[in-house]
Design brief:
Order of helices and strands: EEEEEEEEEEEEEEEEEEEEEEE
Oligomer: single chain
Strand order of the largest sheet: 1-2-3-4
Largest sheet: 4 strands, antiparallel
Number of strands: 23
Radius of gyration: 19 Å
Length: 255
C-alpha cells in the first residue's frame, strides 16, 4: 500500500530480511566489528542490536512471531549460526558447521531454521542441534529460494552448461518435486504455493510439485522475478515491473 518506513544504514548493507509482520533484520558493516545486526519493527523503530566480533555476519532472520533472531556468520572454521531472543543480548545457542559455506537461513519459528549451503540443506534446532536434510555436493548450485518451510533448488550437473535438475524439498527433507532442466536460470522466487523461474527467454510458474502452472514467452531482457503469495509474479526490468499470473489466462482475458 506504499512506503511504511525509511531506514538509513550508517554503513554498507550486507543483507536485509523482512518477516511476515514487517519486522526487518538488517545486517551491515560496522567499524571495529565484523558486522552489525539491527532489528526494526514494522514502523521502522530500532528495537535490537547485535555486534559480531569473532566472525563476519552474512545475514539474519526473524521468527514469524518477531520474538527470536538467528544470525549466520562465517569465519576461518566454517559457518556459524547463532540464536537470540529479542528480550536478551545473550546468545541462546549456536552451532558451527565446519568447513562448510552456508548462504541463507529461513526461520521456522519454535523448531529453528533451515539453512541452505553451497552443497547441503540443514535443519538447525534452537538448541544448535544440526540435522542434515540433503547433500548435493556432487552437483553445482545455480539458484535457490526458501519460503514457508520449503526449499527450491536448481542444481547443475556440470560447472559449465545448463543441464541439471530442479527440486523442491520440505522442512523434513522430503522431495515434493523433481524435474530435469536444460536452460539457464536468470532469477527465481517463491511465494504461497508457487515458484517463479525466469529463464533467459521465458517465465515459467510451477507449483510446489514442480508441475507447470503457466508459461509466458515474452520476458526476454528481464533480470529478476518476485513471486507474491497472491499468485502474481512480478518480472522486473531496469525500469518496469510487469505482473504475470500463476494461473494461465485465455487469449481474450486480461493478464
Amino acid at each position: 500500500e506504499g512506503v511504511t518506513a525509511r531506514i538509513a544504514a550508517q554503513d554498507k548493507i550486507i543483507s536485509a530480511t523482512v518477516n511476515k509482520n514487517g519486522y526487518l533484520a538488517l545486517t551491515t558493516q560496522f567499524a571495529g566489528y565484523k558486522g552489525l545486526v539491527t532489528v526494526y519493527d514494522s514502523a521502522g523503530n530500532e528495537i535490537y542490536k547485535w555486534f559480531s566480533g569473532s566472525a563476519h555476519a552474512l545475514t539474519a532472520v526473524l521468527s514469524p512471531d518477531s520474538r527470536h533472531l538467528a544470525v549466520l556468520t562465517i569465519g576461518g572454521g566454517g559457518s556459524r549460526v547463532v540464536f537470540f531472543s529479542l528480550d536478551s543480548e545473550e546468545e541462546k545457542a549456536s552451532c558451527l558447521i565446519e568447513d562448510a559455506i552456508l548462504l541463507e537461513l529461513h526461520h521456522l519459528g519454535t523448531s529453528g531454521v533451515l539453512a541452505v549451503g553451497t552443497g547441503e540443506i540443514l535443519h538447525i534446532a534452537p538448541d544448535g542441534a544440526v540435522t542434515p536434510l540433503l547433500d548435493y555436493s556432487a552437483r553445482y548450485l545455480e539458484a535457490y529460494a526458501l519460503w514457508d518451510g520449503n526449499v527450491f533448488l536448481s542444481l547443475k550437473t556440470y560447472s559449465v552448461g545448463d543441464q541439471g535438475l530442479l527440486a523442491v524439498i520440505d522442512k523434513t527433507g522430503a522431495h515434493l518435486g523433481v524435474l530435469d532442466k536444460d536452460e539457464k536460470i536468470v532469477s527465481v522466487s517463491a511465494g504461497g504455493g508457487y515458484i517463479a523461474v525466469l529463464y533467459a527467454e521465458r517465465l515459467v510458474i510451477y507449483n510446489k510439485q514442480l508441475e507447470v502452472c503457466a508459461v509466458y514467452e515474452d520476458t526476454a531482457g528481464a533480470g529478476n522475478v518476485i513471486m507474491r503469495e497472491d499468485g502474481t509474479a512480478l518480472v522486473l526490468t531496469k525500469f518496469t515491473a510487469e505482473p504475470y499470473r500463476a494461473v494461465a489466462v485465455t487469449d481474450g482475458e486480461e493478464r
